[in-house]
Each structure stands twice: as structure tokens, then as C-alpha cells.
């Protein structure tokens, strides 16, 4: 226990130390021109304060004999200032070294670490559980990157069965992942497609006692008060939600989709595991890099997160239903009754597509025509048209369900996709290449001639009479990747939807000619655009857009001619008009200037420290004026060099 008489002295010492540490922290950040985390700056300042004492003690020792009434002199004051600069340089150097070895943000701070410790432990247990499931089903070598692709079909069938069983045991998220993969004929072989297609989303329903509180909390009242009739037995039960039939007080028959209690936390944890697992597979396996499993996982995670918010699905459903199609029907939502975990929509009367049979080419044609019209003409399209989201209605039409994933395209992208499809229909490699470079961001350097030849070979391989189009989208993605083209997310959603649709069409009508039907759609679209009414409307719109420019054109030509006649014609070009360019150039000049000043200060310091003689300003240290100026310049050089190094390390990140 601290004696009572020493308490004021102890408090003064602690207060003084706190002020010194705070001053060093503020000074280090201001001189480096950057902000650091509180923990990092505290550790650097305390370490610098601790290290500076033994290093500077020999310099301070001669001043310990000064009497209170003795004048220290001008030299002593500057030496004290120099000592303060050295005490400040040590934490600055520690901060720069820490930035080089452990960049800011790469390691969580202690507060974030403690907050996330519980979550990491929970994810670790789940990850261990998933790993045990994979090992139990014989997938351990593939997780370690040592599994080879089976050569014979029987081995591939066994591997596909093991994968399906592991995904089924993994739970909600992994069942969804298997269902998505079962539609990707462009990525997986037929054995995997067939086996993963057996993953059913029909699971044991949650008891009504667990579901009812969700409905009451989301709808703001008892179920019997909100609905005129509500069937407690679920119509369907899936891994994420389960559906019930009900009747509103106004008389409409509806389907109520209720999210399973606590599913959000489970899915969030599993999605984190899927992303980590995808990153590991892409880093350690050739097939993971070839498939781009990390991007697939990110797209899958985004789709699942949207699917967990039923308000997004209700908005998507309303957007698609606002553009009705004669051959495909959509359920209409009741927005005032739709919340994050409850979705109320009109009921479609029919049966599942699985019970229809696999020889309905007219339904396949209607589905393809509807999706292409949504993509190319309307700009709002269903992004996940797999068989589980389709049903055959009593009136013979198709019903499209589950609008948790919907894509949106602006007019320019739709126009470019239309030109792409029309050029494919004409088998025009140049037109296909030009349209593709309008759809995707154009890189600065690209081999357009090579891309045109690749697209010509692509069309010759897939678009000829009687040719198979199963690998159509896989080859298209391969060409895009080979020439360094990056597909925007909205265009990638189009390709994913078409690839999924291809598997659905094959299941609905084996032997369905996707390419031929798409060409027929392109031909009908050309006919629509060439109709007199469409041409007249297009010309009218273009004329209205050009009219303001045409009215201003004569006056502008007159001003240009007058300026040229009187010798006042000039052109003004604004360099660095973009703020980002100015900021980049300013930062670069700043870094160069600091480097030059630091090098100059260091060179002058070395020259002064090596110069003999000069007036003595501090006899106790035998320090001349040249030495004093040299040491100060050396400190300035160190500060500037540390600031430049920090700029380099931060820019690298």
C-alpha cells in the first residue's frame, strides 16, 4: 500500500507520465501524417518512452550536477530539444516498422479480438463438425488438395454420392449449395449433376409452437386475428422456411412463407465457413483455381443473404409481376404483410414440375422465351430458374416461384446483350466481339484480333447445325477469362441464370435446342424492331433527342467561324481535370519532395558532423555549434525518411 505522505508525489508522477505519453502519441502521428489504432500507438509510445531512458541517460548525466541558480545556457536548451526529438523518433520508428511488418487492419485489435473470440470459437466448432462430416464421407483428401479426379465413371459416381451425402449432413447452407451446383452443367460432370439433383429441400417441419411466435412478432398480432383461416399444417417445408396456406379476411387465398426460427445465425456461420473453405480450395487445388470457387462462394453467399430477407423477395416479385407474361404466371405479394421473416403472397393452383414428365417442349419454349424477354427487353429477370422454382398451373401455364434472387439490367447493357445475341444469330465474329466488349469493361490492352478468332471458333463449335451446346457457357466463360475480361456482377447474373436455365430446359424437354430457340427469339425481336410502328417510334425518340443539339448547332458554327476569321480561334484543354488524378499527382510530388528534403538534410548533417572546430555551445558535452546543427538536421532527416517510408507502406496496401 502506498504511504499517505507519498500519494501526492505518486499522483504527480502518474499525471506527468500520462501527459508525456499523450504528447508523444500526438506528436508521432502529426509528424508521420497518419492515424493509427489506439492500441498500436499506445504500445509504440510506451515502448519508445521505455527505450529512450537508457539511451539518453549518458547525454543527461552531465546536467545532473546543475545547481538550481545556475544558468544552463543556450546550448543546453537546444540539447534538451534534441533529446525530446530523439524520444519522439523512437516511437515513430516503431510505428513505421510495425506498419511494414503488420499493416494496419491486417490483424484485429484487442477489443475486436475479445469481441470476436466467442464467434470464432463457435465457428471453430462448426468448422470442426463440417470437417468431420467431410472426412466421414471420404472427402478428406480433397480438402487437403491431394485428391485426384477419378478417371472411370464408377469412381466419379461414388465421389458424387459422397459429396451429396456430405452436403446433406452439413445442413441448410450446404444443401442449398448442392442444389445450386446441381444446375451448373457448365462446371460439373453428369454424374455430379444427377447425384446432387437428388438433394431435396423437403425437411421435417419445425413445430407450430416455434413458428407461431415468429408470425406474431412479425405481423404484430395473433394469427387468427390477422388471417380469416390459417392451416397449421405446413404446405411445404424447406431448409430455410416453410409455407402455409391461409385465407385473408378479404377472401384471397394466400401462401404464407415463414422463416425458420434461428436460421439466420446458422446460415451466417455456415457462409463464413463456405468462404474460408473456398479460399483454401482455390489456393491449394488446381481444380479450385480452374473453377474460381472463391467467386462462386461470394456469389452464393450474396444470394443466400438476400434470400433470408423476405422484403427483398417481395420487392423482386412485385418488379417481375409488373411486367406480365401470357405464358408464365407469377404470385403477387401483399406488401403490407411482408416483413423480413414473413412473406404473404397469392396462391397459384397447380402441381410441381417434377410430376409433369420430361417431354414438354412447349413449356420449355415458353420458359426460354419469358426469361430472354425479361433479360433483353424488360431488364428485370428471375436469376435462379431451377426446376424447384417452377410449377405447372391448372390452366396449362408455367408458374415461376421464389424470387429471392432477381437480376436488373440498365438500358445500355440490354442493348449490348441484344447486339450480342443478334450477332450470334448471324454468326458474325466481328459483331460478337464488339458487342462483348460493350457488355464487359474494356481493358486498356487487349488482343482484339485474337478475341475475334476465339469467338469465331466458339461459334463454329457450338452454333453449327446439329452441334451440342452443353458446354456453351463454360467455353464462353473460358474465353472471357483467357483475354482478361472482367464480367460485371449484373452480367454474371445473366450468364448464371442462362446456365441454370439450360439444365432446367434439359430436365423439362430432353434434346431441347437452346441455341435454335434463342435464334428464333432473336429473329422475332428483329421483326419487332423492323415493324413500321417500332421504326416510327424509334425515329421519333431519336429526333427528339437530337433536336436541342440541332437548334444550337448553327450558332456554334457561326461563333467558330467568326473566331477563326478574326484570329481569335483557340482550343482550351484542361489537364488533370479529375480530382483523383490531381490527388494522385500531388501525393507523388509530396513523396518526392520529402525524399529530396530528407536526403539533403541527411547530407548536410553528415558534412557538419564531420567538420572540425566551430564555437563551443555546450562545454559539458564538448559540443560545437556545427555538431548541434548537424544533430538537429539528422533528426529532421530521420523524421522525413520515416514519413516517406510510411507513405510507401500505406500505398502498397
TrEMBL record:
Domain ABC1 atypical kinase-like span(s) in chain numbering: 198-432
Sequence intervals crossing the membrane: 41-64, 76-98, 584-609, 629-649
UniProt KW Coiled coil keyword: no
Domain of life: Bacteria
Pfam families, per database record: ABC1
Keywords: Membrane, Transmembrane, Transmembrane helix
PANTHER family: CHAPERONE-ACTIVITY OF BC1 COMPLEX CABC1 -RELATED (PTHR10566), PROTEIN ACTIVITY OF BC1 COMPLEX KINASE 7, CHLOROPLASTIC (PTHR10566:SF113)
Family: Belongs to the protein kinase superfamily. ADCK protein kinase family.
Descriptive protein name: AarF/UbiB family protein
Amino acid at each position: 500500500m502506498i504511504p499517505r505522505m507519498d500519494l501526492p508525489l505518486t499522483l504527480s508522477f502518474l499525471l506527468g507520465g500520462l501527459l508525456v505519453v499523450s504528447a508523444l502519441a500526438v506528436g508521432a502521428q502529426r509528424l508521420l501524417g497518419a492515424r493509427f489504432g489506439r492500441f498500436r500507438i499506445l504500445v509504440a509510445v510506451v515502448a519508445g518512452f521505455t527505450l529512450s531512458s537508457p539511451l539518453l541517460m549518458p547525454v543527461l548525466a552531465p546536467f545532473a550536477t546543475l545547481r538550481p541558480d545556475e544558468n544552463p545556457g543556450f546550448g543546453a536548451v537546444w540539447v534538451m530539444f534534441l533529446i525530446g526529438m530523439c524520444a519522439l523518433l523512437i516511437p515513430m520508428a516503431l510505428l513505421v516498422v510495425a506498419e511494414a511488418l503488420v499493416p494496419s487492419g491486417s490483424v484485429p485489435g484487442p477489443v475486436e479480438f475479445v469481441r470476436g473470440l466467442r464467434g470464432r470459437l463457435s465457428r471453430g466448432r462448426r468448422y470442426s463438425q463440417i470437417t468431420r462430416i467431410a472426412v466421414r464421407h471420404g472427402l478428406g483428401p480433397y480438402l487437403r488438395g491431394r485428391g485426384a479426379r477419378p478417371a472411370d465413371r464408377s469412381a466419379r459416381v461414388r465421389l458424387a454420392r459422397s459429396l451429396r451425402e456430405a452436403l446433406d449432413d452439413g445442413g441448410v447452407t450446404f444443401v442449398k449449395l448442392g442444389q445450386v451446383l446441381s444446375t451448373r452443367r457448365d462446371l460439373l460432370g453428369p454424374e455430379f449433376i444427377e447425384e446432387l439433383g437428388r438433394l431435396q429441400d423437403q425437411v421435417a417441419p419445425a413445430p407450430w409452437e416455434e413458428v407461431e411466435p415468429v408470425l406474431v412478432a412479425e405481423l404484430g398480432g395473433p394469427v387468427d386475428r390477422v388471417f380469416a383461416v390459417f392451416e397449421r399444417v405446413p404446405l411445404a417445408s424447406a431448409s430455410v422456411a416453410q409455407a402455409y396456406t391461409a385465407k385473408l379476411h378479404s377472401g384471397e387465398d394466400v401462401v404464407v412463407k415463414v422463416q425458420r426460427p434461428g436460421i439466420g445465425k446458422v446460415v451466417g456461420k455456415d457462409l463464413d465457413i463456405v468462404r474460408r473453405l473456398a479460399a483454401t480450395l482455390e489456393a491449394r487445388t488446381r481444380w479450385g483455381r480452374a473453377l474460381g470457387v472463391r467467386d462462386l462462394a461470394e456469389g452464393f453467399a450474396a444470394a443466400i443473404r438476400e434470400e433470408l430477407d423476405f422484403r427483398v423477395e417481395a420487392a423482386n416479385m412485385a418488379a417481375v409481376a409488373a411486367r406480365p407474361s401470357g405464358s408464365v404466371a407469377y404470385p403477387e405479394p401483399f406488401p403490407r404483410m411482408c416483413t423480413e421473416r414473413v412473406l404473404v403472397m397469392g396462391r397459384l393452383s397447380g402441381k410441381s414440375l417434377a410430376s409433369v414428365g420430361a417431354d414438354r417442349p412447349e413449356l420449355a419454349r415458353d420458359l426460354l422465351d419469358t426469361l430472354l424477354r425479361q433479360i433483353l427487353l424488360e431488364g428485370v429477370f428471375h436469376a435462379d430458374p431451377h426446376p424447384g422454382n417452377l410449377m405447372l398451373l391448372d390452366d396449362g401455364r408455367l408458374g415461376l416461384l421464389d424470387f429471392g434472387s432477381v437480376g436488373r439490367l440498365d438500358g445500355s447493357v440490354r442493348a449490348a446483350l441484344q447486339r450480342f445475341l443478334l450477332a450470334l444469330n448471324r454468326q458474325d465474329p466481328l459483331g460478337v466481339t464488339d458487342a462483348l466488349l460493350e457488355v464487359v469493361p474494356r481493358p486498356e490492352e487487349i488482343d482484339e484480333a485474337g478475341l475475334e478468332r476465339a469467338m469465331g471458333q466458339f461459334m463454329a463449335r457450338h452454333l453449327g447445325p446439329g452441334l451440342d451446346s452443353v458446354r456453351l457457357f463454360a467455353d464462353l466463360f473460358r474465353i472471357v477469362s483467357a483475354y482478361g475480361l472482367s464480367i460485371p456482377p449484373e452480367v454474371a447474373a445473366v450468364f448464371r441464370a442462362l446456365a441454370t436455365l439450360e439444365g432446367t430446359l434439359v430436365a423439362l424437354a430432353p434434346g431441347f435446342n437452346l441455341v435454335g430457340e434463342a435464334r428464333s427469339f432473336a429473329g422475332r425481336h428483329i421483326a419487332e424492331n423492323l415493324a413500321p410502328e417500332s421504326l416510327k417510334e424509334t425515329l421519333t425518340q431519336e429526333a427528339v433527342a437530337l433536336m436541342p443539339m440541332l437548334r444550337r448547332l448553327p450558332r456554334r458554327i457561326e461563333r467558330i467561324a467568326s473566331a477563326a476569321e478574326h484570329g481569335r480561334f483557340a482550343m482550351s484543354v484542361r489537364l488533370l481535370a479529375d480530382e483523383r488524378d490531381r490527388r494522385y499527382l500531388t501525393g507523388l510530388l509530396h513523396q518526392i519532395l520529402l525524399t529530396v528534403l530528407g536526403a539533403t538534410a541527411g547530407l548536410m548533417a553528415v558534412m557538419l558532423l564531420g567538420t572540425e572546430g566551430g564555437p563551443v555551445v555546450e562545454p559539458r558535452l564538448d559540443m560545437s555549434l556545427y555538431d548541434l546543427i548537424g544533430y538537429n538536421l539528422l533528426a529532421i532527416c530521420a523524421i522525413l525518411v520515416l514519413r516517406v517510408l510510411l507513405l510507401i507502406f500505406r500505398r502498397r496496401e
